[in-house]
Amino acid sequence: HMRSLGYLEIGLLGESMGGTVVTKAYDESIKAVIFWYSTFNFSKDAFMNYYRETEQKELKEKGYVLTDGYKVGKKFIDQIPTIDVEKETSKMVCPVLFLHGDSDTDVPYGQSVEAFARAHEPKEFNLIKGAEHCFGNEQEEVINLTVDFLDRHFK
After folding, report:
1. Residue 12 in contact with residue 146, Cβ under 8 Å?
2. Taking a C-beta distance cutoff of 8 angstroms, is the pair 85, 40 a contact?
3. Residue 122: is the preceding peptide bond cis (ω within 30°)?
4. What is the CA radius of gyration of the chain?
5. Which residue from 14, 8, 154, 7 is spatially nearest to 85, judged by alpha carbons?
6. pLDDT at residue 142 above 90?
């Protein structure tokens, strides 16, 4: 869509589950990709909660699981074991920046470390000290790292 509006140099940024959207939207014309605390392996960590007995009962009864006020549907939960965002990331040929907090308990930074290992050069990884999921008090640092990365790859 952006190309139809005249934009020729496009970068993508995905936060948390938005990293999955980025990997699905990516094609070789994308100039740069940035992942902020992205989920790269849905079958690990927090997403495994959907397979507990309580959640499976709720899923069977309602067709969804209520998580933090959001309905997570059966179709998505059934797809979790098949989603391999790390693999999709390894197909990217543009510069990629990974930013993740070392105190993130929703999506542990090890997921970014593993995806970074599979990504092609040029790539960068920054572990943000003390940052939790969503970079609460670290916004300025994260914005500066992101802008610096974009400046280097869009000039």
Report:
1. no
2. yes
3. yes
4. 17
5. 14
6. yes
